[in-house]
Amino acid sequence: MSQERILVVDDEPAVRSIIAAMLQRSGYSPVLANGAEEALIRLREDPAYDLVLSDIMMPGIDGISLLDRISADHPGTPVILITAVHDIHVATNAFRRGAVDYLLKPFERAQLESVVFRAIEHGRLRQQHNAYRQNLEDAVSARTAQLRAAMHELERSYDITLEAMGDALDLRDEETEGHSRRVTAYTIALARALGVNSDHLSIIARGAFLHDIGKIATPDAILHKPGRLTAAEMAIMREHCRSGYEMVSKIPFLRDSAEIVYSHQERFDGTGYPRGLRGSEIPLGARIFAIADTLDAMTSDRPYRKGTTFAAAQQEIARCSGTQFDPAIVEVFLRVPPESWAELRGEVDKASVSALPTLIRPTVAHAKPFGLASLTPEALKGAAHATADPARDR
Ligand SMILES: [Fe+2]
C-alpha cells in the first residue's frame, strides 16, 4: 500500500474532509491545511510532500499564487489545482504556471485517484530526472578537476621545455649571463604596469625569455667576434629573429610568444629589423620588451664598460621615445621610479638557478605594488643572452 503524503489545501472544512477520506481510502496519507498560508507553513516545516492538492478560489492567497510559491520554493513538488468553475482559461493558466493537473468539482473518488496517481508518478519521474542531472553535473565537475590537474602537469612540462631551451642558449654564450631572466622580469613588470592581463602576460613573458633563442643558429665566429661585425656578418647575425621565430612557432604553446621573438629587434619608427615594422604593427609584447632589453643592456657591466645607473637608462629611453620606443609605453615606464627597477634587478640577480616555472606562468595574485613580485626570484632561472649592447644593434 502506498504511503505517499499529500497536502490538501481548501478553505472549506467539509471539502477538506471529503478529499481526505477519499485519499485515505485510496491508501494515501493526507495532511490538511485550511488555506495557502497554512500550506506554506507546513511546507516550510517539512517539505517532503509527494503532492499538493489545492483549491483555487480561497480567501487570502489563492491557489494560483500558492502554486507560484511552490514552483519557486519547492520545485520538485507536484501540484494539482481544484476548482468549481469550469473554465478552460483557469486550466490553461494553471498548467502554464506549473500545475501537473487540474480537477473539476465535484469529482468521483476514481477520478481523484487516477489524477493523484499520475501526478505523483510525474513528480517521481521529475525527481529521478533531477537526480540524474545532478549526478551528471557532479561527474562533469569531477572530470573538470581531473582535467585541470592534467593541464597543471602539462604546464609544468612546458616550463621544463622552456628551461631546456634557455639552457641550450646558455651553453652558447655566458658573457651576459642573467640577461634573459632580468629582461623577462622587467618585461613582466612593465606589462603589469600597463595593465596587461595574466594570459597575455604569460605569452609576453615566454617571448621575452626566449627572445634570442635564434642565436643558437648563429655561427660562433660571428656570435663571439670581439670587434665590430662586417655588413655580411651583421646580416647573418640579424637572422636570429627569424631563426628563433621558426624554431619557437613550431611549438604549439609558444606559437603566440614566437611573434615576440620575431619582432624583438623592431623599432617603433620602422627602422628596426627583420621586417621594418612600425608602431602598432609591432606586437605589444615586443614593444614592451624593447624597453626592458635596453634597460638591462645599459645597466649591466660589459668587459669594455661599466653599466649606467637606472636613472640614466631611463633618461636615455625617454630620449628615444617615439623613435626606438613606443611613447605610450615609455610614459608608463618612466612612472616607475629607478629604485624600483634597481630593486627588481637585485631580486633577480639574487635568485638561485633552480626551477623557473612561475615566472613564465606568472601569478598575478602575489603581485607587489606595481606588480614586480610574482617574479619570485627563485623562479627566474635564466639563460645567458648572447649580445645586447646599449644600442641593441645586434
Ligand atoms: Fe636579439
Description:
The chain has 394 residues and is of the alpha/beta class. It folds into 2 domains: 5-133, Rossmann fold, CATH 3.40.50.2300; 173-379, Hypothetical protein af1432 (Orthogonal Bundle). It has 15 helices and 5 strands. It has helices at 13-25, 36-45, 63-73, 88-96, 109-172, 179-193, 198-209, 220-223, 231-249, 255-263, 284-299, 310-319, 327-335, 338-350, 357-360; strands at 5-9, 29-33, 51-55, 79-83, 101-104. Strands 2-1-3-4-5 form a 5-stranded parallel sheet, sandwiched between helices. Helix 9 (231-249) packs antiparallel against helix 10 (255-263). It is rod-shaped and about 110 Å long. The model is unreliable at 353-393 (pLDDT under 50). It binds fe (ii) ion. Fe (ii) ion binds next to loops. Residues 211-212, 240, 264-265 line the site of fe (ii) ion.
List the helices and strands and how they pair.
Blueprint: E1 5-9, H1 13-25, E2 29-33, H2 36-45, E3 51-55, H3 63-73, E4 79-83, H4 88-96, E5 101-104, H5 109-172, H6 179-193, H7 198-209, H8 220-223, H9 231-249, H10 255-263, H11 284-299, H12 310-319, H13 327-335, H14 338-350, H15 357-360
Bound molecules: fe (ii) ion.
